[in-house]
Amino acid sequence: MSTSLTLIIGNKNYSSWSLRPWLLLRQFGIAFDEILLPLDTPEYYQRIGDYSPTGRVPVLRDGDVSVWDSLAICETVNERWLGGCGWPVDTGARALARSATAEMHSGFAAMRTQLPFNCRRRPDAYRWSAEVDRDVERIQQLWNQLRSRAAAGEFLCGEFGIVDAMFAPVCVRFRGYGVTVDENAARYMRAIFALPAFIEWDAAAQAESGHYAATDAFAGNQV
Q1: How far, in Å, CA of 72 to CA of 7, rounded?
Q2: What CATH number is associated with residue 13?
Q3: Cα dihedral across residues 46, 50, 56, 62: positive or negative
Q4: Would the pTM of this model clear 0.90, i.e. be above it?
Q5: Per-residue pLDDT tens over the stretch 156-168
Q6: d(CA 218, CA 173)
Q7: Which residues, other chains included, contact 34 with Cβ-Cβ below 8 Å and sequence gap of 6+?
Q8: Does residue 111 sit in the same domain as residue 68?
């Protein structure tokens, strides 16, 4: 594929921020080229400056225009290619979805730190702190609140949208670390994992051979 649109990402197994805009673009059928830079490698540090002013992924390149940060990319995709349908039509639902997305974007530090993103991971003896449990409880509150007013559909606001792209990596974390969730969260996770775009990403992540030691260390240890 060759298009004017290119998404620069990190390893599919480890890069939660890359998953978010990738999932939105792929699920909505928007054609793009992909450049994958393996995290924390000489190749990454040699090449990332060509694409990202922050030295981080993801970055969306549309001709001469660059957009960095996952949420900024999702908003740009929504404006330019989705006709606004990345957010709910209903004003109240849209406000709630945006608030939940912003909370996800800036919050849940304990969960991010102690349950690092790793698609290949499966539950073991590793356990986390009470701070993570509070993050998990808050996330489930958000999911319940969103689903309580959702239109028809399996996702947080009914149909798949930006808020789901932002929370998809949380589903991977919950799966990989064996986090106990309520039935609403379990149903939502099943819906994310059944998305054709997610299945494609996850299969590629499982097939990757690279290892990111800082993340792989989180196995079988006690916090």
Answers
A1: 13
A2: 3.40.30.10
A3: negative
A4: yes
A5: 999 999 999 999 9
A6: 12
A7: 6, 7, 8, 9, 22
A8: no
